[in-house]
Each structure stands twice: as structure tokens, then as C-alpha cells.
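Lesson 9: reading folded outputs for more than one chain in a single document. The general rule is that every protein is listed as its sequence immediately followed by its C-alpha cells, and records are never interleaved. Here is the first one.
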Amino acid sequence: MLNEFIRECPSIHVKRRLNTLAELFASRGVPQCIRSDNGPEFVSKAIRRCLSQLKINSLYIEPGAPWENGYAESFNSRFRDEFLAVEVFENLGTARRLTVAWKEDYNRQRPHSSLGYVTQAEFSSRCAVSNRAAPSFQLHSEIT
């Protein structure tokens, strides 16, 4: 998942099931909208019902239109090239531990060009994000 405003990756879960939305909303607040691809997880009746009950708008990316999804495409490319292509996961626990370490580096240590070459943490501290509704998140069914 990506926070479009501050370019933070609030969640990368290594799981066999997608059930992290409630956890994310509890810790970060409910976003105004969620942008997602059209994968089966995000067009399912259960997800749509949950988002509707929480009054969260669904924004779907047109199939075959990656330019509508630039933040996530950039993130997915980095995640794939810098992490998935170079790590070997012995088991699910190892995958989770290494994923958390990569996410923390991405969010806290790495300057982002789209943020004026400051880290996400520095940019976030400069903004009054806590006084607003949570910004939109981008959700993606898979990294290709």
C-alpha cells in the first residue's frame, strides 16, 4: 500500500490472505478514497461492502493504463528490483522480517525525488497531515 500524499508505504504484509485494511485504518485513520487496480481482491463484494460502510470512495485504475498508477508503478519497480530480485526467503518468517526492514529503509532513510529529495519521515513531519482526514491509499493485488 502507498500513501499518495507523503509517498509512505504504511504496509507491506507477507500473508496468504488480504485482511490488513482494518488494521491499517485502525492505526492510520480511514482514508477518503482508495485507488486500486482491478484485481479480484479489490472488486470483490466484501471489499466494496466494507468501503461503502466506511464511506470510502473507490477509484479503479483503467486496465492497461499504468500512467494512472504512477506512484505505485514506481514503488513496485523499486520493490521488485531492490528487494524481491535479490533476496532469498527461507520461510514466511524470514520474508516478513526482511520486508519490514526494506519498508523501514524506504520510508525513513531514502530521499524521494517527488518530495524534493527529503525522506518520507522528514516530509511528513513538515506537513500537518494529522489535522486532515487520512489521504488516499493505493492498493495493488500483485507485483508483476
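And here is the second record, again sequence then C-alpha cells.
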Amino acid sequence: MNLRLVGIGAGVLILLSLPLAGAVAGPDFAGQDDDKGGGLLSTLGLQDPSRPSPAPPAPAAASPQLPPQEPGPSQQPRTDSQCGPELSSPHGLEAQTCVLVGEGRTWGRSYYRNTSGSPLDAVLTVMGPAGRTVQIRCEVGAGDEPGLCETPREASAGDPASYSAVAEFAVPDDEGALLLRSGSNSPAPGDG
């Protein structure tokens, strides 16, 4: 009886493995019908002796692994500046004013920090050769964050050293009390 059970078990295993073998191998066990050299023999690492060996695929050229590239700083044209000293007022205002030159243009810029607790007005004026003048008014908010006031960029005329800029910071009321004047050619504090 044990022999009978063993025989039946073996038969069942063979019957169950046939659909599995067919699914793995496809229609052709030697891979002769698909011209790919596939099938069960190839899958098992065996080859049909009647078939020539397929050429092994050429190894893919290894591409060098580069670290992710960070975008470089944008190529900006050179800008020259002529700046006065950083000045401060007892009212909680700090400023520095510059004349900037780049790409054939000249403009004024004033950097400031207003810790006075009140909004202020600023007037930035750039004076150039032959009486050329550009002026802009900026609102200066109160707070510890730095800000800037900048004039439009105008075509340069003459030597950059012939330009100067002045920023005047005042209380925005009828009297307009001047709190600080900062210039691109202001003397440093302590210079007579």
C-alpha cells in the first residue's frame, strides 16, 4: 500500500509540474521557434546541441557616476562701486550710499536699516557730469531688516569718478526733519 501511495503521489507531482514547465518554457523548450535562444533549456543554463551559441551581449559601457551638479552662480556682468562710509544717526537709522557702474550704465543705491520705530522717507539723488541728475523717493519702513533704495539705471556719460550719490532720510511730515544724510563720497566718521 505504501508503494501505491508513492506511485500516485509521483504521478500527481508530474501532472502538476507540466503546466508549470509549459508556462516557464513557452511553446518551445529549446527556444527554436522564437529565434531568441530562450526557452527552458536557456533558462536552466543549458543549450540545445543542434543550435549554435548566441553571441553574448556586449557589456554596456559604464558611464562615470558624477555627483549631482549644482547650478553655478549666474554669470553677471562686472559692477564697480564707489561707496561712502556706513553712517548712523542717534535716531536708530543706519545707511551707506553708493554709485554703481556696469554694462555702460550708472545708478545710485542706498542700503539702510531703520530701527527708529517709525516709517521714514528717503530721497536718493545721483549727480553726474554736465549737470545730469536722477532722483527717486523711497519709503523706508520701520524694522530691523535691511533695505535698499535704488535709482533707475541710466546710460553712463563720462568718467565714473565724476558721479556722486546722496541719500537723505527724513520724517514724513510737513516739516520733514532730516535725520541722516549719506553720500557716496561722504567723509568717514572722524575725518575732519
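What the second record shows: DSSP finds two helices and ten strands in the chain.
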